[in-house]
What we know:
Strand content of chain A: 5-15%
Number of strands of chain A: 5
Largest sheet of chain A: 5 strands, mixed
Radius of gyration of chain B: 27 Å
CATH architecture of the largest domain in chain A: Roll
Number of helices of chain A: 6
Number of domains of chain B: 3
CATH superfamily of the largest domain in chain A: Beta-grasp domain
Shape of chain A: globular
Low-confidence stretches of chain B: 1-53
Helix content of chain B: 25-40%
Largest interface: A-B, 56 and 65 residues
Oligomer: heterodimer
CATH superfamily of the largest domain in chain B: Aldehyde oxidase/xanthine dehydrogenase, molybdopterin binding domain
Strand order of the largest sheet of chain A: 2-1-5-3-4
Structural class of chain B: alpha+beta
CATH architecture of the largest domain in chain B: 2-Layer Sandwich
Largest sheet of chain B: 7 strands, mixed
Radius of gyration of chain A: 15 Å
CATH topology of the largest domain in chain A: Ubiquitin-like (UB roll)
Number of domains of chain A: 2
Mean pLDDT of chain B: 92
Low-confidence stretches of chain A: none
Order of helices and strands of chain A: EEHEEHEHHHH
Mean pLDDT of chain A: 98
Strand order of the largest sheet of chain B: 10-11-8-18-15-16-17
CATH class of the largest domain in chain B: Alpha Beta
Structural class of chain A: alpha+beta
CATH class of the largest domain in chain A: Alpha Beta
Number of strands of chain B: 27
Distance between the termini of chain B: 42 Å
Amino acid sequence: MLEFKVNSQSQSVDVDPTTPLLWVLRDNLGLTGTKFGCGMAQCGACTVHMDGMPMRSCSLPVSVVAGKQITTIEGLQSKTAQAVQKAWVDLDVVQCGYCQSGQIMSAVALLESKPKPSDEDIDQAMGGNICRCATYVRIRAAIHAAAAQLSA
Amino acid sequence: MRMIDPATAAAIFAADDSATAGLSRRDFLKNTAAVGLVFGLQLAANKKAAAADVGEVAPGAFAPNAFVRIAPDNVVTLVIKHHEMGQGATTGLATILAEELDAELAAVNIEYAPANAALYKNLAFGSQGTGGSTAIANSFEQMRQAGATARSMLVSAAAQRWKVPASSIGVSNGVLRSGAHRATFGELAVAASQQPVPQSVTLKDPSQFKLIGKQQTRRVDSLAKCTGKATYTIDVKLPGLLTAVIERPPAFGAKLISFDARAAKAIKGVTDVVQVAEGVAVVATGMWPAIQGRRALKVQWDGGASGLNTAALYQDYRQRAAGAGGATVTRDPQTAAALASAASRVEAVYEFPYLAHAPMEPLNCVAWLHDGMLETWGAHQFPAFDHALAAKAAGLPMDKVKLHSLISGGSFGRRANAASDFVVEAVNVAKAIGRPVPVRVQRTREDDMRAGWYRPLYVHAVKAGLDAQGDVVGWQHAIVGQSIMAATPMAAGIKDGNDSSSTEGVWPTPYKIPAMTAELHSPTQAVPPLWWRSVGHTHTAFVMETMLDELAHAARQDPVAFRLKLLKDQPRLAGVIRMAADKAGWSSPMPAGKARGFASHYSFDTYVAQVAEVSLKPDGSVRVERVVVAVDCGVSVNPDQIVAQMEGGVGFALAAALYGQIDIAKGTVTQSNFHDYRVLRIDEMPKVDVHIVNSTQAPTGVGEPGVPPLAPAVANAIASLTGHRVRRLPLAGQTFTRA
């Protein structure tokens, strides 16, 4: 049995310890907001927070997660997260939307560590999240908008 | 996959003046609208039968047509007949319905239409499906009629109840009012459903629009997609749902010789290992055991198309382009003489690779065979294909097959597949399991990337001539590439070997080019081809727009002025060209180390011009800093979504221009995932400034038309900066130095 917290709730799962966290979240815990895109930490669709840090859950064996706090898109609650989600909706960032859980998780982690990110900071923090619809113009604008809202 | 047939398009381009061109378009659109009206009336006349076909309609609900349902509890449901893959069709159709209905857009409930061609066909195709940037264009009048009909019946019901003239009743945000009277749609639902269906309804004058054309009209799906609540095929939950991955042929055309499932079956969670037409499926209680089971499989294949190499295809296609025997696309007997006597000539050969769509959600579908029927859950972009082929695979009549259509995590053409490959494989696995359990076949990124259905590899060869004044006098063009339409139900549209999806954008052309001849060679390959966002225009626009740019330079003329000279009877294309040039400051100088490039293109009834501003990175690779876009798509239904599609079109096209390339060696695809099939990332996304032409013409599509001009605009900027003409894509691996 592996024990960890997901969105503040204790979970224990009985799975092969090499199972990537992504599939434990999706197949065992029914949390499907976190998406599968590449399986090799290339696209960021599966981004979650582990103890507040953005991690690619498709390449994170669940054994590594034991005892940790995991936050998924379903568990976002912080003031920063709310500002990010509001900015995303206000600017109609999404198109197909499939990558956006991961984009938002990366953006929230960025703003929690850097409340006023520069464009270069955004490039660095968001460079691991692919959007095939290329909503990047609006992702950038929404991060700046959320930062402005949080500092207002 | 196109709204107008090539003959009609040719007629438009051949028109001698803009008035005639406009009339042709309007006539066509009027006919389309008429279809919608007649269809709406037939539907209304047969209301009960229709209601039975539109899915679940609550008792007491008002369902005046296939698109609007109002329940007594005031839930307003709009039924969307088009697939939502991010392009915003849901918001567009809901906006149009809500506008004429005067419903509150933010409060409506959205449902996707079941497979039912009679009710939900695409009026541009005559069958049910989404593609060719037709969603808004074919639905605009139909959705307006549907919304206005429902509104009219609600108003009649209120007039009767309140004993007031209908003309005294105002409707706004789902509430009817007259004097002191007030009622919600829901309160009038039962009474409205007893009203006669009006024979005709008055549509709003555009000046009365509250939603259409308004910047503040927002997407209806943003919140669900920002909170992880939107349901894609990968998220479908059903009791006992199993997950399958398929071990697929390592080379195109390879056949299974044998497999050993013992080690796979020993993996905890693996329930079945079954042979299907697509390969060997490993079925499990979740994705990870399925993947592990597949790794443990021992499979032997034969060699398949082991002689297939893309490097050799370029050689072969270049030879074909230089040779005879192509199908005639257009022929002017004067071409050879015009070129022979030209004062100067430009000749070039262009190469374009296979391209994968690589939508973010790898392909998948859920199939459940139970109780003598089949249910599927999937991104059914083309129910016309998927319904029939799922039924065939299951061995069931179509009325025993129920499709649940879900949004998709991107498509770019991939999920509109005349072989319904991703649906049929799920049905095949469900059938092979032999138990009445639902199963999702989920592709990994590698499965998706290597399975073919690419934008085909193309080679073009062009010779063009100028006279002493710098005017174009002749144009000889050869195109070589697989036919996309040949293996589809649209093959009947291929006349004398001329597949217009290979040639659209070269011919017909809006440019007045004298003495033009074009030929098409369509070799077959073991790689299945497919349309890819903007189809033939992905390569034809590049060739036309870079060659015109090269000719303008040869003639020592400004590339914008050079184009306009050839577009004297094309006011809308000329209009976006002038607008883009003006907004980009085309005639002003650029700072040292930067250059602009221009391209414009007409596709899917929409006109787009783009100015790309590029610089070189220290390593000699290209950086696109800004793209200015001008677009004329008729009436703007959702202006911000038009902007979004232009931004996205630029980014999607730039990904392909910079990196997009599928190579095949010995029949096997070289690339497999995003590390070797690179796509655009945020640090490479240029600024995009979009300008929309204010128009009262019928609305046309925007999903695809933003794509074609980008690569040629970038290539023309590179030529301006470096003097080097780009003749093959992608740009990756090509380095440039400033002139």
